[in-house]
Amino acid sequence: MNELDLARWQFGITTVYHYVFVPLSIGLSLLVAILETAYVRTRRQHYRRAAKFWGKLLLINFAIGIATGLVQEFQFGMAWSDYSRYVGDIFGAPLAIEALLAFFLESTFLGLWIFGWDRLPKWAHAGCMWVVSIGTMLSAYFILAANSWMQHPVGYRINPLSGRAELTDFLAVLTNPTLLSAFPHVLFACFMTGAALVIGVSAWHLSRGRHQDVMRPSLRLASWVMLFAAVGVALSGDTQARIMTQQQPMKMAAAEALYDTVAPASFSVFTIGSLNGDDEIFSIRIPRILSFLATGTFDGEVEGINDVQRQEQARYGEGDYRPIVPVTYWTFRLMIGVGMLAAVVAAVLLALTGAPGRWLQRLRRRTGDPTVPRWVWRAAVWVIPLPVLGNSFGWIFTEMGRQPWVVYGMLRTADGVSPSLSVGTVAISLSVFTLLYAILFVVETRLLLSYAKAGPEAPAEPVEQDAERQLAFAY
d(Cα 103, Cα 408) in Å, to the nearest integer? Predict the structure, then answer.
């Protein structure tokens, strides 16, 4: 492997690892804000205990996420200095706003939330978590603005003297159609991730009959959020697929491993054998679905890899403009598959805990839990990694499907790496980062498991009537 390969591996490993924490923070902050708002409105103590419990897990995840995110900033200058020099004027602007505005909101109001229990008015304290939640979403928006510019460059010009890309229209960057389609898709996926953690931890406690007054409403809230977010992911993903087809036809063709242009185009759910069709052993296909995803019509034409390759050679010069097709093909399907599975789990849990019909009553067995079989709770615990995997597969598809471009149509990945980078240097930094992240993973996992198993704080004991009278007399 040369320095380019190692630099790409390093960026991929650190980015995917960091992104495990980001959707958890976005999703959990929303759920905590909803639970605390329910406490403010109803004064029911189990909502307060739920908000404090899930808030602890949010804080652990937020702290580790900050540590891993710092590495991302350094990598642009260390391993990708040519990329930073070429597009720094544009790429750096949304990242700077994210740090100065969004992260400021998150960290400041999260601190107020931590130390404001019983010191701030209840509505003000709940409002702090809503500001944190909004701050995490704004942070995602500005970071996605930078990434979307890499997918579809807008609002810039190339300075003929310096040879660098310069920002000419920041509003165009913030209203990039790629960004407007990607943001809701990413946001809904984050909500699914936070909901999955709440579902899994709640199910673990319910399987043991513990903290039911906190875990049952938490699980139902998270299941509803999971279900609605899954619908949002599907709808926004449909829009995103059409924009991707218009802007990066090679990526859509590679997602299906479609080598020749066809109309209408089927969608292969599962294929064994050669992806180019030369030696296909077995394949499950849904007719016309790829045409609908790519064009919005069931009879639409979808360009194949070979045709797009010829077009891009004519436009950009000789070269191979095809991504690694097996990677794009399988990550696209795994992204969809694990997301659908998580939504099915949430729907089943809502059905079993809601008792809407007689046929569901027959599914219930009084073994351990009085309403739901214990095996259901144990199975629900495994929903936790599903959205995390879906997010990772989605980002691998997004970034690998854009290759060989680091900025589509402008700068190739091979031209963005630091010229002074050596194999030995990047190999050492890759090893150090991987080891450090492995340690942080162990720390994060042990902390989350420890606090998750401990459960929420015990309910406050009611004040006896005599004690209330004595207190009143003292005043």
Answer: 28
